[in-house]
Design goal:
single chain; 343 residues; mainly alpha; two-stranded antiparallel sheet; globular
């Protein structure tokens, strides 16, 4: 694992805390940046550290969004009446009801998504390589279509989240910091996780799963736990994002496989999968490029992102961090025997 001076964390913390006050006009965009960082970090637990490339991790983002919404609504209202297409019943939440519902909803989103990952893992981890990737993609696509037909949760028309009992600026600021601390919490947890025996075990699975099993590593258990950890943080991010946008829709908001689902993979590859800081760096650069192209090159944004992914995959597979670690190994605590290199 790459070694970084802890002092480098300070500028990130300063930026994260000061950003919504210094540049308030882009508070939501930076909040989404922290969600992107969380996306990349959680995908890399499976794809980078363990070698299981999932194309369906967006499933847990969407499940967390729906679980949170249903918990928040059902605590103080009838779900079927709240989501009725007639819209005849008006629900107004008090401050206490809103914040209690939000807290329990976020917690339930994380736990529910982790349990969903654990239950799916017993079946999907029978697949390996591209079959696992396609299997997870199929489940994510299916989830969006199924939620689009379930009338109880609003079906294709979606459902509105409980309204924040305050000003729009207050809502933006609150969810900004919640997204920021969710990303920081994910980073700290991953940093600790990779330094334990668990990190060594999932790296062994990545390097050679059959040998890892022969060494006595219970691979199915480790794979299930790793996916559940990833799903836990993704579920929390889904709950935050759903409340921040104020509306949950199955295909474009909760289960956007073609956008967020692909972005989390592309960000990890760009920064350098299998490293701690690579996904973070990839998320920042990818999000900046995405916002720039969406703003100034609308209509060409997919071309630009497509070219970036092609160049990354074909010519730059190790990613930015991988390249830096090859170029400057000493800065990452990698000792190179120059005599052996010269030979």
């Amino acid at each position: 694992m790459e070694s970084f001076n802890p002092k480098l964390h300070l500028p990130i913390l300063i930026f994260g805390v000061a950003a919504p006050f210094v540049i308030p006009g882009v508070t939501i965009q930076i909040a989404v940046l922290w969600v992107m960082v969380l996306f990349a970090l959680t995908w890399d637990i499976m794809g980078g550290q363990m070698g299981y490339n999932s194309l369906g991790n967006i499933l847990f983002f969407g499940s967390g969004m729906y679980i949170s919404a249903l918990v928040q609504i059902s605590m103080f209202a009838n779900v079927s009446e709240y989501t009725a297409s007639s819209g005849a019943v008006d629900f107004t939440y008090t401050n206490s009801e809103y914040f209690w519902g939000l807290g329990w909803g976020i917690l339930a989103a994380g736990i529910g998504s982790a349990l969903l990952a654990a239950s799916l893992g017993w079946t999907l981890f029978g697949l390996r390589g591209p079959y696992f990737a396609i299997g997870t993609l199929g489940i994510a696509l299916t989830a969006g279509e199924l939620m689009g037909t379930w009338e109880w949760v609003g079906a294709g028309g979606g459902l509105a989240m409980p309204v924040y009992p305050g000003s729009a600026d207050g809502k933006s600021l609150m969810f900004y910091f919640m997204c920021f601390f969710a990303a920081i919490g994910t980073y700290l947890f991953c940093s600790w996780l990779y330094s334990t025996r668990f990190g060594l075990a999932i790296n062994a699975i990545r390097d050679d799963e059959q040998k890892a099993e022969a060494m006595g590593i219970h691979t199915l258990r480790y794979k299930t736990i790793a996916w559940s950890v990833s799903a836990f943080f993704l579920g929390i991010s889904g709950a935050l994002f759903g409340n921040m946008t104020g509306f949950v829709e199955p295909l474009e908001v909760a289960f956007p496989v073609a956008t967020f689902g692909i972005f989390m993979v592309a960000m990890s590859l760009l920064g350098g999968k299998g490293t701690l800081w690579g996904p973070i760096l990839g998320a920042v650069l990818f999000h900046i490029l995405k916002e720039f192209t969406w703003t100034y090159f609308l209509g060409w944004q997919w071309v630009a992102l497509g070219v970036l992914i092609i160049v990354n995959v074909v010519f730059f597979q190790q990613g930015i961090m991988g390249w830096l670690m090859e170029k400057f190994p000493e800065r990452f605590g990698i000792i190179v025997d120059k005599k052996e290199t010269a030979k």
